[in-house]
Every structure is written in C-alpha cells, then in structure tokens.
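To: structure desk
From: M.T.
Subject: fold request, one chain
Message: Could you run this one when you get a chance? Sequence is below, nothing fancy, just the single chain.
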Amino acid sequence: MAKTRARKAGWLPALILLLWTIPATADDPPKKVRLAYSGWEVGTAIAYIGIDGGIFKKYGLQVEEVFIRDALSAGVYSLIGVDFLIGFGNPIALLQPMTAGADIVSLGTHVSQVPYHMGVSSDISEIKDLKGKKIGVSGIGGRSDLLARVILRRAGLDPVKDVEMVPVGLSPNRVAALSKNIIQGAPLTPEIADRAKQLGFKVLDVKEVPLITAMLMTTRSFIKKDEETVRRFMKGYLAAIHFYLTRRNESIAIIRKYFSGREPETLEGMYEAFAAQLKPLPAPDREAAQALIDAASVVNPKSKDIKPPDLFEPRFLEELRDSGFLDELYSEKISL
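Reply: Done. Structure tokens follow.
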C-alpha cells in the first residue's frame, strides 16, 4: 500500500504539468471572455500581444475587447459585465469598492522599480526625522504619493499617522514649496533631484522604490463560477509576456498597429520601457500594495483594515510556477 501511494505521489507533478501545458484542442469550442482595458500601459500591451499574436486563441479563448475611459477608477465598476480588467487608476477608487464589499481581486501585478530621491529641509538628516512634518506630493494616490509612502515605511514611519501628505503638484512645485518651508520633504525624480542639489537643496538618496504600474483583475465570483477559464486566460497572458520578452521585432510590429503615426524610435522606447516592467511571473509586491492601502486610508479609514494579501489571488500564478509551465516557455535559465 505504501508503495502504491508513493507511485501515485510521483505521478502527481507529471499530471499537473500535463494539465497546464496542453493547449485546448481544435475540437474544443473557444470560450468567449470579455476583457476591459483602462488606459494604455504595460498590461494593455501584453493583452494586445495575446490577442493579435493568436496566443489566447491557442488556449481556447475568444477575447472580446472593451475599452474603458474611466482612468480615475481604472474601470473597476466596469467589472460588472466583463470577465477581466487590465489597468490601474487611483488606488483610492480601487480600494473603495472593496471596503463596500465588492469581490474584486488581482490575478497578477506589474511592478516597476523606480529610482527616486527625497528632497528635505536643511534640518532633516534622515528620513525618520520627517516624523511630524509635511511631505509634498503631486496628489493623494498619485505616483509620487505612493512612492513617498514606501520610502517612509522603510524608515519606520507610518505614512498615515506620522506625517501629513500635502498635494502641491509636480516635482518643480515641490522644490518651490521646500524653499518656502511649506513642506519639509518631497519625493523627487533623479533629474529634478540633481537640479535641486545644484541649487543648494538637501537631497537624501534612497534605494529604488516599487510602484504598481498595472493590475490584471477579475472577481472572486467569476473565479468560483468558471475556474478553468481563469486558468486558460492566465496561461495565455503569461505566454504573451514570454512572446513580448523574446520576440522584440514582432511585438513592436503589433504595437505599431495601434500607434501607426509614431516614429520607430518612439515605439522602440515604448517597447523597452514596458519590457523593463515585465517578469515571467507578474507576482504582487507587498511594499507597493501597502502604499495603495495607505493612500486609500486617508480618504476612507476602513481601508486600513485591508492587508496586502487581501488584494490578490495568487493561486493561479503559483500553479503556473509549480506545474513547470514557465519552464516549458523559457528555455534559458531564468530567476523566477
């Protein structure tokens, strides 16, 4: 009996790999799914690759595209009537539905490691010295706000309780606000930080900061209703990432269809910028996710009860990783 159980245990990994790597057969009718986009970003590019490159079709899916112009909320409410949503808007509008009981969840997340600095007033020696001070950002929930919250948490500060976030505009406005002591800290891009140093401002260096640039979302109710379709979609999506990373010229040609008037150099720059955000497995980043929660907590205190794992359903990415699906896609040695 023990030997029988051992043999069955040995078959299990092979069976999982077989189930994950076999595409839908020609006899299977394609499953129709509705995919919504919010804005043009890395996730949208990958979806275009998956559709125009025939990758989703390979896994038995017929994708109907729905374009959402609601940039603020990233079309979260538009998950009513669609199966999947790619995009990322203001985190406040993203988390508000969750506090009201919505069952939205992220299946995958693209994260960019952003070089940033913190401009500070002359009496500040370390980031932790900003406790009780005002931090200037472009707007609550904006890019600079999210980056600042990660930087502050790394220094042991609670960005909701220990500092006051003040919307003052873009980087040049933040430098001006620093000069008048309206604020005592401000996240700055490397270019603006260098210029601020030349003008005599104090700038603290920090390590690169993770920033969520796109999320692939669905609802827990859809997962419960049609788990197999979610699996097919995730296989197609990760195969599209592989296509993008390994077939540069063909990927640029697909992007060109949607930006026919752009110069070749612009399209190549767009390709490289997106490629820098891609990993074979678009797993969530805890620091970046916590920044979303911190920002949303300013407007709705209930948001602070949300934990980073609550935003994600990692099961499908974990299955893809453990089944050997990615090993089949990538022939080269690659860190996952």
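Reply (cont.): Residues 16 and 323 are 6 Å apart (CA to CA). Let me know if you need anything else for the meeting.
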